[in-house]
Write a structure and sequence with these properties.
alpha+beta; Fumarylacetoacetate hydrolase, domain 2; seven-stranded mixed sheet; five-stranded mixed sheet
């Protein structure tokens, strides 16, 4: 595929977002066949969103950080995309149920970087990224997709769609990272006050710090770096499907507090 094909795919994704319609798939002549092409389309799609909505890239999200999910999509690693300021909110948040299609709720552990993570001679690990973390917090991603069936779209198309970008909201930030057992931090998700699902940070590459290291290495491979102030979210600890109009979803992260979103 050439740059014109990448541009065409990005424009189709953007138009689908603006028109609030779904695609069965990108056409054969501009559908990415591998991750490299998918990220090229993602770059263009993100630029189109920033041009239209304004704002900035304020951080990055990792998806498919569960090995089972990777196997389902034929991946050997997670995938990633930028967090865009016009889609980032603080908890408690209120979102229109008409703003997306899926409204899949993912409870996640997030971080704000306290210092840059520049390229090094050796790849980052959980141990080497930890000193760069400034704060930790609970978060909710409201996943959405431009495809009629994201489960069969395949990883390259999902990456091109900025890894199913919807809204993302986060809770109170804590600088006491050392007090947390990040390898096994629990979350309880409630729907309208009733227990819905429970999960653990162990579900994201065994430890969210492993995800931060992967993100740092991934971005370096693409010619950029994680920077101080960036918001990072590390993938789903547990998901609740198909939130509806009138629902209030709360993710209770214990010592990290409760993050909530209501759909009107």
């Amino acid at each position: 595929m050439d740059s014109q094909s990448f541009d065409r795919a990005a424009e189709m994704l953007m138009q689908a977002r603006l028109d609030r319609r779904r695609l069965s798939a990108l056409p054969d002549n501009c559908r990415p066949g591998d991750e490299a092409g998918a990220y090229d389309i993602q770059d263009r799609y993100v630029r189109l969103m920033l041009d239209h909505y304004g704002g900035d890239i304020v951080g990055y999200k990792a998806g498919c950080t569960n090995v089972t999910a990777q196997q389902q999509l034929g991946l050997s690693s997670p995938f990633a995309g930028p967090l865009l300021s016009h889609l980032v909110m603080t908890s408690p948040a209120v979102i229109s149920a008409e703003s997306g299609f899926m409204r899949m709720i993912e409870a996640e552990i997030g971080f704000r970087l306290g210092q840059d993570l520049p390229g090094l001679a050796t790849p980052y690990t959980a141990a080497t990224v930890r000193p760069a973390l400034g704060t930790v917090f609970g978060a909710i991603e409201v996943v959405d997709s431009r495809y009629e069936d994201w489960t069969t779209a395949g990883a390259p198309q999902l990456i091109a769609d900025n890894v199913c970008t919807g809204f993302w909201l986060y809770g109170t930030e804590s600088s006491d990272i050392a007090a947390l057992d990040l390898a096994n931090h629990p979350v309880q998700v409630r729907r309208n006050g009733l227990a819905a699902e429970q999960g653990s940070s162990a579900n994201v590459l065994d430890n969210p710090l492993n995800v931060v290291a992967w993100l740092a290495n991934h971005l370096i491979s693409r010619g950029t770096i994680l920077k101080a102030g960036d918001l990072l979210t590390t993938g789903t600890m547990i998901a609740v499907n198909n939130a509806e109009q009138g629902d209030r979803i709360e993710a209770d992260f214990g010592t990290l507090g409760v993050v909530s979103v209501s759909f009107t």
